[in-house]
Structures
1.
Amino acid sequence: FELDIVYENLSGQSLDAKALSLVTYAQRHGLYDRLVAAVQAARPHLDFGAAPKASGGVATAEAPANPAQAGPTYNFYGPVTGSAIGESSVQAQNIAGGNITINYSEPKDKAEFADQLKQLEALLKQAIANGEIKDARDAETAVEDIQNAIEEVKHDEPRPSRITRYLEGAKEVIESASKTGVAVLKAVPVISGLIKVVSTIF
């Protein structure tokens, strides 16, 4: 896809992880609509549905949406299958599976940051329950990292370096998940957004 993205620089070791990284990058840099359009052009038989009006927050039963948040919402119906992207070798069997909605905006203050950490914890636990993170030790470590980040944020003087370290550890586990599932896909933009704003909020 011609999206002005240096695909070789995308993070992730597995094909699924690179696909998640592509989705996150496109959302963060305002290329999500172009990515969706490119996938639609390559796979016209897929029914993506219409993108509804943004309603804010991270839409999930375990992690209630925050009405103060507002961001673009995208619906995907059924598997989105990708082949080679442009001239690079980024491939994925499934960019997203099932019917999912991604709606995310970066936190603007400590309260929103703490709320999104709790949402991330819920998404991570959901991913584990769904079998999206198959290594039990990795799953346990990721949950501990998020819980440690939650505790660090509660301190009178939270240390940004610690928060970032905890989140980076959990992000590595999420991105290396062996299977691309609903909870994992929703968790990626959340944890990436949190890492991005740590130094500005704290």
2.
Amino acid sequence: MSCCAGHAAAQSTTSWLLDFFTSSPLLATIVLGPVIAAILAAYPLLIWLSPRPLEPTPDELRFYTAADLLAYNEKHRLPSMLEETLAFLNRDQALSRLDHAPGKNISTACDALREPLARVEIIVVDDGSSDGTGDVVLEHARNQQSRWGKVELRLIRLSRNRGKGGAVRHGMLHARGALLLFVDADGATKFEALSALATELDRIRTPAGHGIVAGSRAHLVGSDQVVKRSFVRNLLMHTFHLVLSLLMRPPAIGKVLQRHLPSFLVSQNTLKRTTLPSQPEIRDTQCGFKLFMRESARVVFQGSHIERWIFDVELLLRAELSSQTAHVRLANCGSSMREVRKEAGFPLPHSGKGKADTVADVLLDLPLPIAEVPVQWTEVSGSKIDLLKDSLGMALDLVIIRANYALDRWPSPKPAKV
């Protein structure tokens, strides 16, 4: 027996399609034959193109916050980024600016958000640089030893260039903080933006210690920083977001059938959808400034695969899958995140007629919420992106991600703890 409208809708749609093709075997062969042949031919190619995941992260927890700086041939730009990072982390202030402390539980993550930082780890991942980037990091540490104080610096040198995704994952899987931040070493986003991300993370975090906040440049679309880019660069940017939306959030079957088939052929049950809250769409998936609760970082990075530019998309997809699975389990048990938050003394979303009023409130209904916070961003020279080559690579990786999770070749992450 179905437990939700979405399941009933899927059954209704499937039954209609089966009846349609069963009544006309020739039409079924003409329509489905090429599709099945293409899938069988593409599957070996998908296996060959798909990377393997890294080993799990260690359980050691020694720091309030761990900042993961990604560097590839950043000899000239990295010193100023380290200076900026040190200046921010040595302030005697809490990261979160929330006035109150939601929740009854006191945890290391809570301390990391609301207390002046006492223990901080900075990891610089040298992604196979050939310009002496790692040596610059060590020289800075020696020359500024008195300023490091409560901040422990770790340098990880990769023997070969793994790509941005591979370097980020390597650093995050070895970070030892309750809060984990990864940031590009080019300084395009100021490190002080961490306060805004931490404040939002403090607001949305769950009693089980889940939450992700992504820095976003979506508010800059239409600004001089974007408008003054070349036509080709802007065209590729908009094309990427269109392909991303179609692959990761395809239109509902019911809506597609309703649009393209006569109304008498479409059962009204087909148009029903589940009423479980869902993650609002992330407008900027690629900003290199993201903050994770440790539990959420473990969910998204353990078992991730993509090592190139588009790795963020897989991380966010894994977070959504983990959240959805946990939500369904709660619903099957007759519970919800509102009840979990209420019992733990956490803030509840404002609601009308049983539904959250705003995107900010919807996030409080999710087992693993992902928030977006606008950050100031400045395009810096020296980009490592080959516009045409990497754009094609991104498109291919999007297909690889979607296909592997859709076919269950890559296991879905475990349900988020609630």
